[in-house]
From TrEMBL:
CDD domains: AsxRS_core, EcAsnRS_like_N. Keywords: Aminoacyl-tRNA synthetase, ATP-binding, Cytoplasm, Ligase, Nucleotide-binding, Protein biosynthesis. Homodimer. The lineage of its organism: Bacteria, Pseudomonadati, Bacteroidota, Cytophagia, Cytophagales. Its EC number is 6.1.1.22. The keyword Flavoprotein does not apply. This is Asparagine--tRNA ligase. The gene is asnS.
């Protein structure tokens, strides 16, 4: 086997160069057959489909395959001839000449011995679930979407900014933060007031994991014009829902001289082009998810590509919700934050398309959003998607120093922590806007999966950080 180079399964399945010797390496998905012939499906992760290896029983009797450990889950190498397939379901197959087992998988204990495990069970074996059809598909789509995001921004002249993960400012107010410290668990130094003395900590001040890269993104936009961040963010909220994680990835573009209109145009073009990319580049994985989990998936994706989003103000949305025939668990009134049931009513029942809501009451939004002329609302925008609710949150930012600091005082945001952020308004301030797209919420939408814990390799949520 030594001088022959291995070929990926996807490359072999696409090959038209037949009747040649090939070498493939991967994991056994299934082995079946009879006393004349054994069929081994080998998958190396390169794509959704496995390649069929045909092992003639004269050379490879079932008993010998079993004794050698050629069982579901085993890692093997197969040397053989690539030939046109006699059977249905594949165009080529390999007639085995030599099979080497790298690592067997004991069929009496291997957790994925049988197919059809529930997603809940698979969550408990997050280290093995990438070997299933479902998670292979989700993880390849996740990769394709990260690539498409970088490609979109690169093609449109944006610069990728690496914003910090450990932050000394806990002022954005986007959610509860995780403390980062190297102080002793049992005997931290205390100050005169009896509180933990963080001046003795690693950074000389209290630090946390970031909830968003936006504020640093704004700093970069005031120099490079068009920037984006794409990194992990952390929120210690106790939200045990199918749409919240404690550690999730967020994409945050920030653009100098953009207003709310430009921001909406960017969000819409960006999302539509990502969905289009998935349809063009992940057809096998999407088809599987469509057939297995959600028969409307491909239609829904195509619908988003083909149709413009509905844009309306928060105030208009509240009117629609108040006159809706549907009973909501949470009442709607001007000034209250919309719940996911309200967002989904607007998207799924009323408009039946993605919706962008704008101009929310200032009291339910962050301090940095630009105040509208009426003094009651801000230039916020949330993009709401079918099955998801909020997928993007963003705004035009307040560029006026006076108005910004006034909002900070009203909302008890400490100015001294954000002196560097305020310098952007002090020196060469300019109108600008940006938004945050929750990466896992995007992947939920693209894959049609129902739970956000199933679209990230190792989900972090309350009481769960095993892997
Ligand atoms: O609306 P959010 O909190 O906005 C911000 O953090 C702004 N700083 C973004 C900006 O303007 N640059 O979060 C943005 C998006 C949400 O729309 C949602 O998709 C996602 O991040 N998100 C979560 N995703 C998973 N788990 C959570 N706990 C999430 N919280 C927010
Ligand atoms: Mg939000």
């Amino acid at each position: 086997m030594s001088d022959l180079r291995k070929t990926s399964v996807q490359e072999l399945l696409r090959s038209t160069d037949l009747d040649r010797e090939v070498l493939v390496k991967g994991w056994v998905r299934t082995r079946r057959g009879n006393k004349y012939v054994q069929f081994i499906a080998v998958n190396d992760g390169s794509g959704f489909n496995s390649i069929q290896v045909v092992a003639n029983a004269e050379q490879f009797p079932e008993e010998k395959l079993k004794a050698d450990g050629v069982e579901n889950g085993a890692a093997i190498a197969v040397r053989g001839r690539l030939v046109a397939s006699q059977g249905k379901g594949q165009s080529v197959e390999i007639q085995a000449e030599e099979i080497t087992v790298y690592g067997s998988a004991d069929p009496t204990t291997y957790p994925l011995q049988k197919k059809g495990h529930s997603l809940e069970f698979l969550r408990e074996i997050a280290h093995l679930r990438p070997r299933t059809n479902t998670f292979g598909a989700v993880l390849r789509i996740r990769h394709a979407m990260s690539f498409a995001i970088h490609k979109y921004f690169n093609d449109h002249g944006y610069f990728y900014i690496h914003t910090p993960i450990i932050t000394g400012s806990d002022a954005e107010g986007a959610g509860q933060m995780f403390r980062v410290t190297t102080l002793s668990d049992t005997k931290p130094p205390l100050n005169e007031a009896g509180e933990v003395d963080y001046t003795a900590d690693f950074f000389g001040k209290a630090t946390n994991l970031t909830v968003s890269g936006q504020l640093e993104g704004e700093v970069a936009a005031m120099a490079l014009g068009k920037v984006y961040t794409f990194g992990p963010t952390f929120r210690a909220e106790n939200s045990n829902t199918a749409r919240h994680l404690a550690e999730f990835w967020m994409i945050e573009p920030e653009v100098a001289f953009n207003d709310l209109q430009d921001n909406m145009d960017l969000a819409e073009d960006f999302l539509r082009s990502l969905v289009r990319y998935a349809l063009e580049h992940c057809p096998d994985d999407l088809q599987f998810l469509n057939d297995q989990y959600d028969k409307e998936l491909l239609n829904r994706l195509q619908f988003v590509v083909d149709n413009e989003f509905k844009r309306l103000t928060y105030t208009e949305a509240v009117e629609i919700l108040k006159s809706a025939k549907q009973k909501f668990e949470f009442p709607v009134d001007w000034g209250t934050d919309l719940q996911s049931e309200h967002e989904r009513y607007l998207v799924e029942k009323h408009f039946k398309k993605p919706v962008i809501l704008t101009n929310y009451p200032k009291d339910i939004k962050a301090f940095y959003m630009k105040l509208d002329e009426d003094g009651r609302t801000v230039r916020a925008m949330d993009v709401l998607f079918p099955g998801i609710g909020e997928i993007i949150g963003g705004s035009q930012r307040e560029e006026d120093m006076q108005k910004l600091t006034q909002r900070m005082q009203e909302m008890h945001v400490p100015e001294e922590d954000l002196w560097w952020y305020l310098d952007t308004r002090r020196y060469g301030s300019a109108p600008h806007a940006g938004f945050g797209l929750g990466f896992e919420r995007l992947i939920l939408f693209i894959t049609g999966m129902a739970n956000i814990r199933d679209v990230i390799p190792f989900p972090r949520f309350p009481k769960s950080a095993e892997f």
